[in-house]
Specification:
Layout lengths: L1 E6 L7 H8 L5 E4 L8 E5 L2 E5 L12 E4 L4 E2 L1 H13 L7 E4 L3 E2 L2 H14 L11 H9 L12 H23 L6 H9 L1 H5 L3 E2 L1 H10 L4 E4 L23 H8 L6 E9 L2 E3 L8 E2 L1 H10 L15 E3 L1 E2 H11 L3 E5 L9 E10 L2 E3 L5 H4 L3 E8 L16 H14 L3 E5 L7 E3 L1
Parallel strand pairs: 1-10, 1-11, 2-5, 2-10, 5-7, 6-8, 7-9, 11-16, 15-17, 16-20
Antiparallel strand pairs: 3-4, 12-14, 13-14, 17-18, 17-19, 20-21
Helix pairs in contact: 3-4, 5-6
Bound molecules: guanosine-5'-diphosphate.
The site of guanosine-5'-diphosphate (GDP) has 26 residues, from helix 1 and strand 3.
Length: about 425
């Protein structure tokens, strides 16, 4: 059975925990898009881990973890994460890297930094991990596949071709030192011995595994609203965050995915710029941020304080629809236990008209939230493992949101630990 775990909104919904949990009976976990620009936080018997590029199945010795073709693969980061895992007692995790995955090159990070500096106050809030320049190169066909490391003439030629264009931009647009293709080649060829043991044709491997009936998890990064086609463009990321893309980023048939778990957090948070309709500020936001402190409401990659807001039914309904949700995993409900009343955004008012349809970006910028106030439950709900043992107001909160978004909430997460979970 193939399952996808994806985000409903802006990311940081708690996908890491849900993946780690569902990984208990998985054979394979795959990352299919994105790169080291976002993080997963996982708490388990080994400790607390912030992972960026590694699939979340890494802690289970029986799981094969795959870096799929759709990922922006950063080799130095991979080496760094392997070292970090080893230092924390995790030896030789099983990892396979797609032989067609493209390399995040040192100059992608440079270009990300230069471009954000050039944009100045109009910048996208990039994590400067080189993701946008990486995917630009991929679609402009100047990217470099990992297999090129094993064909030095090809690698040399491709680096030279990429540098030719980049040096024009460096000289005339960014006024920065030019790239030396020879130096880049010498740096990148060192990656070869670091990745060689892991590089295989993961597409063949996965399709065979599907035929054998293996349990496979596709692990998404960020959330539906960051999708470059359907999200809050241009404040999106540069690769598709949708479950549909998992079939491409992993190389499996579109009809192979049977379950799509969309992870939605019981309140909202976002990193980076862009319209955020249910956003709150000041003390109210700070309280939620600190309460969610366990929930690591400081970006795992950047350490920037996250923007906070109330649950947004309009955005979540849209996100669940885009993902093709079969199940919603509703996380971090425990964080709201301190509130007397909990506002929930049920509509957007745009030019005097209230809608529950998620609008295009220029209209989104104008949207004002319409809130419904629900009563809080005012008691600690961590550790409760049966749905009917939750306080009535907590159940009402879950059921109200389920009705508004129109997708079944089958998992409720009431704490960061693996065991803090309720199945409905
Ligand atoms: P991702 O980007 O969607 O993978 O988000 P993360 O996996 O980084 O999760 C964000 C944070 O939420 C992490 O610090 C998790 O430990 C935490 N978390 C996940 N589920 C819950 C939950 O149900 N309750 C609380 N309090 N924290 C949670």
């Amino acid at each position: 059975m193939v399952k996808a775990i994806v985000g409903a909104c802006w990311g940081d919904e708690g996908k890491g925990k849900i993946t780690d949990m569902l990984a208990a009976d998985a054979d394979i976990v795959i990352r299919f898009q994105g790169g080291s620009n976002a993080g997963h936080t996982i708490i388990n018997d080994y400790g607390k881990f912030a992972l960026h590029q590694m699939p979340s199945g890494i802690f289970n010795k029986n799981i094969v973890n795959i870096i799929g073709t759709g990922v922006a693969f950063n080799v130095p980061y991979f080496v760094k994460e392997m070292k970090y895992l080893k230092e924390n007692g995790l030896y030789n995790p099983a990892i396979l890297i797609s032989d067609r995955v493209q390399l995040l090159m040192p100059y992608h990070i440079l270009f990300d930094t230069y471009e954000e500096a050039r944009l100045s106050d109009k910048q996208f809030g990039s994590t400067k991990s080189g993701i946008a320049p990486f995917y630009s190169d991929k679609y402009a066909k100047t990217g470099i596949q990992i297999c090129d490391l094993f064909h030095e003439d090809v690698l040399k030629e491709r680096i030279e071709a990429a540098c030719e264009i980049k040096n024009v931009l460096l000289e005339h647009l960014y006024h920065q030192p030019l790239l030396d293709p020879k130096a880049i080649f010498d740096e990148v060829i060192e990656y070869k011995k670091l990745v060689e043991p892991y590089v295989v044709n993961t597409t063949e491997y996965l399709n065979k595994a599907i035929k054998e009936g293996k349990n496979i998890l596709l692990e998404g990064q960020l959330g539906a609203l960051k999708d470059p086609d359907h999200g809050i463009f241009p404040m999106t990321t540069s690769s598709s965050t949708l479950a549909g893309f998992a079939t491409i980023g992993a190389g499996i048939p579109p009809y192979a995915i049977e379950k799509i778990y969309t992870v939605a957090k019981a309140y909202s948070s976002a990193v980076g710029g862009g319209a955020f309709v249910s956003e709150i500020w000041g003390d109210e936001a700070q309280e939620l941020r600190v309460r969610g402190g366990d929930a690591g409401e400081f970006g795992a990659t950047t350490g920037r304080p996250r923007r906070m807001g109330w649950f947004d039914c309009v955005a979540t309904r849209y996100g669940c629809m885009l993902q093709g949700t079969t199940d919603v995993a509703f996380t971090a409900i425990d964080v709201l236990s301190y509130l007397d009343e909990i506002p929930v955004c049920i509509g957007y008012e745009i030019n005097g008209v209230v809608t529950n349809e998620f609008p295009v970006t220029p209209l989104l910028e104008k949207a004002k939230p319409v809130f419904k106030i629900l009563p809080g439950w005012k008691c600690d709900i961590r550790g409760i493992s049966q749905y009917d043992k939750l306080p009535e107001n907590a159940r009402n909160y879950v059921e109200f949101i389920e009705k508004e978004i129109g997708y079944p909430i089958t998992i409720v997460s009431n704490g960061p630990k693996r065991s803090e979970i309720i199945y409905r």
